[in-house]
Amino acid sequence: MWLSSELMFFAGLFAMYFTLRAQVPEEWAEQTELLNVPFALANTTILVLSSFTAQAGVFAAERYQRRREGSFWNIRGWGMHEWFVLTFIMGSVFVAGQVYEYALLVSEGLTISSSPYGSVFYLTTGFHGLHVVGGLIAMLFVLGRSFAAKKFGTHEATTTIVVSYYWHFVDVVWIALFAVIYLVQ
């Protein structure tokens, strides 16, 4: 139910984006030239790949495998901890990439108050970024709970699965945002 309400929230942001884009198309033509599509694509790739690492963590949790078995370099033996830490790192890199992109765009004069395009760009990508940060906090919660648990069982595995649902949702929303903002210029 909660993910459905989140979906409606992002649907509203998409509606705002398309409405303003239809009202001032010349603004979009001018402002989208400032976007660094290759950088955004690389950042998007990191976020999308983090869904795969999160899912690998879920598979480990479903096997009740909290930690790695064997060498660190034996990725097939990784447990939920290793996969979720890698997912956390990748999500953090994505957020850092967004902050870097914001800094570049602000230096080019594109701010939240500079134009309708700036407002919509920062609102949509910023709210998404806040959701990514929320997912990162949830991962820390899952990892902390897992470390604190005497026995890694169904409760910990279920928590891992629920957080992964949210993470996958955030990734899918970003794919749609990326397509709309960076590809359909």
TrEMBL record:
PROSITE patterns found in the cross-reference section: COX3
Membrane topology: Multi-pass membrane protein
Enzyme class: translocase
Transmembrane segments: 38-61, 82-100, 120-144, 165-184
Gene3D superfamilies: Cytochrome c oxidase, subunit III, four-helix bundle
GO biological processes: aerobic electron transport chain
Compartments it resides in: Cell membrane
Primary localization class, coarse: membrane
Reaction catalysis annotation: 4 Fe(II)-[cytochrome c] + O2 + 8 H(+)(in) = 4 Fe(III)-[cytochrome c] + 2 H2O + 4 H(+)(out)
Pfam families per the UniProt record, alphabetical: COX3
Chain ranges of the Heme-copper oxidase subunit III family profile domain: 1-185
Gene Ontology MF terms in the entry: cytochrome-c oxidase activity
SUPFAM superfamilies: Cytochrome c oxidase subunit III-like
InterPro entries xrefs: Cyt_c/ubiquinol_Oxase_su3, Cyt_c_oxidase-like_su3, Cyt_c_oxidase_su3-like_sf, Cyt_c_oxidase_su3_a-hlx
Alphabetic keyword roster: Cell membrane, Membrane, Translocase, Transmembrane, Transmembrane helix
One Gene Ontology cellular component annotation held by this UniProt entry: plasma membrane
EC number: 7.1.1.9
Stated family: Belongs to the cytochrome c oxidase subunit 3 family.
Protein name: cytochrome-c oxidase
Gene that this sequence comes from: ctaE
